[in-house]
UniProtKB/TrEMBL annotation:
It is a multi-pass membrane protein. This is NADH-ubiquinone oxidoreductase chain 4. GO terms for biological process: ATP synthesis coupled electron transport; electron transport coupled proton transport. It catalyses: a ubiquinone + NADH + 5 H(+)(in) = a ubiquinol + NAD(+) + 4 H(+)(out). The keyword Ubl conjugation does not apply. It comes from the Eukaryota. It comes from Balanoglossus clavigerus (Acorn worm). The lineage of its organism: Eukaryota, Metazoa, Hemichordata, Enteropneusta, Ptychoderidae. It is found in: Mitochondrion membrane. The gene is NADH4.
Amino acid sequence: MTTITLFALAILISALITPQRFLWPNLMAQSSILSLLSLTLLTNHHSTSWHNLTFATATDSLSTPLIILSIWLLPLSLLASRRHLQQEPQPRQRIYSALLCSLTLILIITFSALDLLLFYVAFEATLIPTLIIITRWGYQPERLQAGTYFLFYTLFASLPLLIALLTLYNSLASISIPLTILSAQLTQFSINSLSLWCVASIIAFLAKLPIYGTHLWLPKAHVEAPIAGSMILAAILLKLGGYGLIRFTEIFSYPTNTSTTPLMILCVWGALVTSLICIRQTDMKALIAYSSVGHMSLVAAGVFSQTCWGIHGSIILMIAHGLVSSALFCLANLSYERTHTRTLALNRGLKLLMPLSTTWWLITAAANLGLPPLPNLFGELFIINALLSWSPITLLTTGLMVVFSAVYTLYLLQSSQHSSQPQYLKKVHPSFSLEHLNMSLHLTPLILLTLKPELICLQWPV
């Protein structure tokens, strides 16, 4: 783990000191090597509960897939941003790439932190580079409003988490994750106190996921962010919320059965409502952003179910959604760079202009709606099974959610690819080899996980 962390730090330093003409080739080569190096974490992925131990960091079967996903997205986000930054001055290109490298380093520390206070500091530190990327390299003047929403939602929701962590340290004299999970001293508190403590701890993660009701910052941030910001925001930063939920529901395993029942109802209902909201979207990126809210609400419901099926389904859906949503934003950016609009009514008939890109659209849409045998289907089935055992009434809500998810995904595919070609699109640049490479590197891991799904399953008892 130390090797990977130091390698990521070296890439950040390299982004700051490399001569400009070697900057992009250097970063692409180094980030690609780091992505391959991160795959070594899978070698002892199933041997013990915790491995790659250092003084402050370690990995287990929950954090390992998320660390690899974070590192895997770094070269892909750099690759997707290359054309976007060509018109930028050279110092801004360097700052942009350094922010992406620093964000990856912070994410590695967040997912591998053994100490809950270190986890909290790194969790909050992801706000800084993301906020700079959105507000400086966003597309519209509304990017400042999007950054403000993102800042205040994250900060205000995180304050109860800090208070809960300090209280936990005062009670147990340790906030190391393995020791906190094994400790039985939480039984000295009343059920009402533990329930309040639990809700105060998880509210920050519900805002980061986000579930329906705390989601207002996400569509604004996605729509205004540049392509790399949207990719990392959808693929990684949302998963911080799911990771934190799973970690903290281990600590508060008993009171979550009572205190999170209203939250489960909100998550299941929110997944259905956001699916309906997606159908009436006119902006391509806003539709993809709202679909992320629906999927993450389903993830939160699976975690709150406190069952083996639910937690395994949540992890599978998080990893699969990270790859699929990032690929969808890449495809939306590919269309935007040629038509200069994200409006679905104006982005149509691209099948005749870019037929190979339509193939990527088809595969990604199939994965997003949960077509077998892709991992998205299994994640959703596991969560629906867990919710069904909790309350049979949820079958109606989740069933409608699945139907409407297929409707808005097919609506996105039909509107952008199969409609009649507009008259103003006389000359469109063809898709480039680097863009096809980017898409293949998104979808190949998704297909390979179908063959070996145990790589993204927990190996410790739930």
